[in-house]
Amino acid sequence: ESLDVDAHDVFDHDPDLYGKMVRYPLEVLAIFDIVLMDLVARMEPLFEKHIQTRIYNLKSSICLRNLNPSDIEKMVSIKGMIIRCSSVIPELKEAVFRCLVCGFYSEPVMVDRGRVTEPHICQKEQCKASNSMTLVHNRCRFADKQIIKLQETPDEIPEGGTPHTVSVLMHDKLVDAGKPGDRVEITGIYRAMSIRIGPSQRTVKSIFKTYIDCLHIKKTDKSRLHIEDSMDTDNTNASKSSEDGHVTDKIDKLKELSKLPDIYDRLTRSLAPNIWELDDVKRGLLCQLFGGNALRLPSGANFRGDINILLVGDPGTSKSQLLQYMHKLSPRGIYTSGRGSSAVGLTAYVAKDPETGETVLESGALVLSDKGVCCIDEFDKMSDNARSMLHEVMEQQTVSIAKAGIIASLNARTSVLACANPSESRYNPRLSVIDNIHLPPTLLSRFDLIYLILDKADEQTDRRLAKHIVSLHFENPEVVEHQVLDLSTLVAYISYSRKYIHPKLSDEAAEELTRGYVAMRQRGNNPGSRKKVITATARQIESLIRLSEALARMRFSEVVGVRDVTEAFRLLEVAMQQSATDHATGTIDMDLIMTGVSSSERQRRDNLVAAIRDLVMEKMQLAGPSMRMAEVKKPYLSVHVVCPDTIAICPLS
User: Fold this and answer.
1) pLDDT score of 345
2) Is residue 20, in this structure, part of any structural domain at all?
3) pLDDT at residue 129, as a whole number
4) Which of 104, 109, 237, 505 has the smallest number of CB atoms closer than 10 Å to its CB?
């Protein structure tokens, strides 16, 4: 058992005691444990468990790179991100030996700093045999131990520096208190350990290995979602009950907010308020933060609840700023760039554990952002090998690894927010999205929403945008709207909704979804064409369900209503009108996203091939088995039907 003690309370009681506790933690904590056991013995005489004191919340936190030899054997508090967790290791605490001659069992021998002192002779008076003792494992006492690797957070890294790491030892109840990707604050004792020159030699090196013996761990960075005050490291009931009143008041305020009729618009204005307009894009990003419900059927089929969004547009349209804002706000958010990301860096890679020498899997960006949002900038500049790893992640939400003797499937239940620039720097409206950014259709179809953010020249729009940007640099900026939620309230609102609100489709909403989907499909029936245009696919109705559930969560509603479905259709159509519109016909054609070629373009190509085939067959019947390419091109060049290069590549069979 353990008791958490706030270091600020120790300082308020006796500053001198606090100073001794930080400088000589081993001695002072041992005294704390003795006093605590005496108090417990007076209140509960039959209580036999050992209670350990865990100190947290030191007055000052030290930067990880500032740890130096003067801090050894002192209590320190550091912040960072967990990048690796080892498996649980059994650590020997008490050893029991048995004599091979007479079978006598020795008294338990305490382990001192990893050293086990084996008795040289049997302790039985009648035996006294020398070098006859052997370790009995099933009578020894073991404790759980885990080694985690802590890395500096990006805001603590100086200009031009690389992140520093430190090993942290977790014991007993602290094991598995954190997982890779968590940002934590650790209170512990900074210690040094000697390193032997060889495994069979007693000589040690002059350079010591340092690590932190963890006393307490808690999550930090309250500006992110899904953050709790502690990581369930046995906080006392008294400390929990003292916070119940405050938490209840906070929840009541959030529920009052959810009942406001304009809560949807208010949340939209509160998301990235420094970015001007882009309201529909912000609404889509809000849906991504709230998310839908993941569905697991008894048959084993899984349907993801996370929403994937792609932002495409001209340079200077705030795409990267939106990504940075979502990264800072989202739970377990990871920000990476397409140019600097490899396939293994995104998923997982095999490395050798320096502690045990075993081959282990290191988590990549997508695995570290499990149950969060992975923001990928410069998506169009990512290598094809790295981009191919996203297919499984964005639909099945797993990462399958089979390398170096390790076969595993890792969870990557993450929402992907990607940002891409056109290949020619400026978006060409005469080309499709796929032709502009050169992404494979199989990957593009996995995005629920694709937004085009274009820089269009308009005097009134430009003037309002310039005023907004200039106002951000005033000494007295423009007064922020009263109806904008502050960041902490927005974080609490989304966190509560994701954790406690799980809406289900009502009968009316389900019928509206079916009716709307059929209506979208009916738009593809063109009376003048023999072929049907695909205006919606099964993936679109799954996207609509996820968007509807996210919109219901914004109102703290357990039931998805018709108005949620209507708004989901509107959001999807806004995105599709921008990204999936065939400019030749002015209609939505999902073939642009699914295959990269619109139905009308495919029809024109088929007509061209048929016309050329008829022409060639007619000419060859009159002029013989061969004809010049110029004769084939001439009829079409005269009426400007098609570029001559197109004729050269058209298949005639």
Assistant:
1) 76
2) yes
3) 84
4) 237
The answer to whether residues 131 and 176 belong to one domain is no
CA 588/CA 567 separation, integer angstroms = 18
Q: Given pLDDT bands bounded at 50, 70 and 90, which one contains residue 598? A: low
Can you tell me the distance from the alpha carbon of 278 to that of 276, in angstroms, rounded to the nearest whole number?
A: 7
| Same domain, residue pair 170 and 203 | yes
SS3 of 470, please? helix
pLDDT tens by residue, 449-478: 888 887 665 566 656 666 666 666 665 444
Rg (CA), the chain: 33
Q: Is residue 550, in this structure, part of any structural domain at all?
A: no
User: In this structure, are 363 and 321 located in the same domain?
Assistant: yes
Q: How far apart are CA 564 and CA 463, in angstroms?
A: 35
- pLDDT per position as a tens digit, 311-340: 888 777 777 788 888 887 876 777 888 776
Residues 426 and 328 in one domain: yes
Contacts of 580 (CB under 8 A, 6+ apart): 433, 450, 588, 589, 590, 592, 593
Bridge partners of 55? 5
- Residues 256, 22: Cα–Cα separation, whole Å: 45
Q: Which residues of 24-55 are buried (b: 16+ CB within 10 A; e: fewer)?
A: ebeebbeebbeebeeebeeeeeeeeeeebbbb
Do 281 and 228 share a domain, yes or no?
no
Rounded to whole angstroms, the Cα distance separating 227 from 206 reads: 42
What sections of 450-506 are H helices per DSSP? 459-471, 487-500
Burial class (CB in 10 A: 0-12, 13-18, 19+), 14: exposed
Rounded to an integer, what distance in angstroms lies between the CA atom of residue 524 and that of residue 95? 77
- Domain contains 249: no
Q: How many C-alpha atoms does 116 have within 13 Å on its Cβ side?
A: 17
Other CB atoms within a 10 A radius of the CB of residue 72 amount to: 14
* Identity of the amino acid at 219: K
Asked if residue 224 and residue 306 are part of one domain, the reply reads no
Tokens of 572: 């999807």
Question: What mean pLDDT comes out for the span 120-131?
Answer: 84
Last residue of a domain, one of 500, 522, 540: 500
Q: Are residues 479 and 619 in the same domain?
A: no
Enclosing domain of residue 371 = 263-500
Decide if 382 is inside a domain: yes
Residue 168 β-bridge partners:
148, 212
Cα separation, 208 vs 550, whole angstroms: 53
- Tokens coding 544: 């609509």
> Is the separation of the CB atoms in 535 and 589 below 8 Å?
yes
Based on the domain organization, do 296 and 309 belong to the same domain?
Answer: yes
pLDDT digits (tens, 9 = 90+) for 376-428: 888 878 877 777 778 888 878 888 877 767 777 888 888 888 888 887 777 77
The distance in angstroms from the start CA to the end CA of the chain is 79
Bigger pLDDT: 348 vs 134: 134
Concatenate the DSSP letters of all residues of 149-176 into one string. Answer: EEE--GGGSPTT----EEEEEEEGGGTT
Q: How many CB atoms lie within 10 A of CB 610?
A: 11
The 3-state DSSP class for residue 13 equals: helix
Total number of domains in the chain: 4
- CA gap 285, 308 in Å, rounded: 9
**Between residues 84 and 652, which one has the greater pLDDT?**
84
Other C-beta atoms within 10 Å of 556: how many? 18
DSSP state of 338: S
